[in-house]
Amino acid sequence: MPDFRKAKAMVFPRRVVAGSNVVDQIADIARDFGLKGTALIVTGPFTMKVAGKAVAGFLKDSGYDAHLYETGLATLENVDKVVKVAEEIKAQFIVGAGGGSKIDQAKAAAHRLYLPFISVPTSASHDGLASPKASIKDGSGRPGSVDAVMPIGVLADTSIIAKAPYRFLASGCADVIANSTALLDWQLAHRLRGEEFSSTAYAISTMCATTIIESASIIKKNLEESVWVAIKPMISSGLSMSIAGSSRPTSGSEHLFSHALDGIAPGRALHGEQCGVGTIMMMYLHGGGWKQIRDSLSEIGAPTTAAQLNLSRDEVVQALTMAHTIRPERYTILGDRGLSPESAEKVATLTGVI
Ligand SMILES: [Zn+2]
Asked: How confident is the model at residue 81 (pLDDT cuts 50, 70, 90)?
């Protein structure tokens, strides 16, 4: 037999439940996973009322010992505190019931303690709902990606997520639409540099972006069904990363643009919002249908211009010229040398971003 040495590990959640009022399934899920004893529920001041208390209540009703812990911003210091509390109460599993920053702390703490983790997101602003990475700020306040655990269960309750500001959901949709250019970049890197490629991950990621683009007209404010339509592609998009073994199927030049903005103008807009605007411009560079991208974003209510991202013309141009330097090993349409300031200004102007 010819020598064959390829091998890959793929990590997935064991159960993902999405739908209206599914939070009441928390105890059944914990039991099905064989979890016993004490749970630490990591939540925030607002999400305590929206989800934390309910999660604790359902667990207690089913005989679990449930401790609620209210945490703050996603910093290493706060993750240390979560770890300490979990150790003190001898938690046997951790539940994150909150927005992205609370979930990130819970899953980073679970990783450190080798504990199972269940995610109950109260908003959906990016495609990392089912991912083994957490975004945590270090001592100097710089955001970084730290190792975390893949949730064994995800309970995406549409009635809870629908109560979060609509801007988050629109941002999550934009993060999935961003797959459109990430996939073109991946294909380019595969053809040009022989980069590892997965057709399965490619197909799933494409399907997620297409579903959001085709459903754009029904994704709107104050409509729980919008969450229902958006949440599955958002979760599946994250799973395409598990299949690929990298973030390639969901993160290309448009994400590099967003990361560049995080350095130049931190905190002005949400991750998905920045990536969406990046997708319009990178699709233009790829020679693809950038107008369809722009129109879908605008129909969903996600930003399509620098002004809507609270950014100046110069900041956008600067981010465009810098983007290729952010992660040089990630080859994209920006190439090794990136955009010249003149070309950057041209692409941003022609696509109506500035
Ligand atoms: Zn993203």
From this structure: very high
The alpha carbon of 235 and the centre of ligand 1 are apart by a number of angstroms equal to 12
Buried b (16+ CB within 10 A) or exposed e, 114-123: ebbbbbbbbb
272 CA to middle of ligand 1, Å?
A: 6
pLDDT score, position 144: 80
Cα gap 212→244, rounded to integer Å: 21
Q: How far is the CA of 86 from the centre of ligand 1 (A)?
A: 30
- CA 100 to ligand 1 center in whole angstroms: 12
Going from the Cα of 246 to the center of ligand 1, the distance in angstroms, rounded, reads 13
What DSSP letter does each residue of 187-215 carry, written as one string? HHHHHHH-----HHHHHHHHHHHHHHHHT
Secondary structure in 3-state letters for 117-170: EEEEECCCCCCCCCCCEEEEECCCCCEEEEECCCCCEEEEEHHHHCCCCHHHHH
Instruction: Find the 24 Cα to ligand 1 centroid distance in Å.
Output: 29
Distance 345 CA to ligand 1 centre (A): 24
Task: Give 346 Cα–ligand 1 centroid separation in angstroms.
Answer: 25
108-164 pLDDT, tens digit per residue, is 999 999 999 999 999 999 998 888 888 898 877 777 888 899 999 999 999 999 999
What distances in angstroms separate CA 200 from CA 23, 240, 245, one per listed residue?
Answer: 31, 8, 12
**Amino acid residing at 349:** T
Nearest Cα to Cα of residue 149 among 189, 196, 99, 109: 109
- pLDDT at residue 96, rounded to an integer: 97
pLDDT of the residue at 105:
96
**How far, in Å, from the CA of 182 to the mean position of ligand 1?**
10
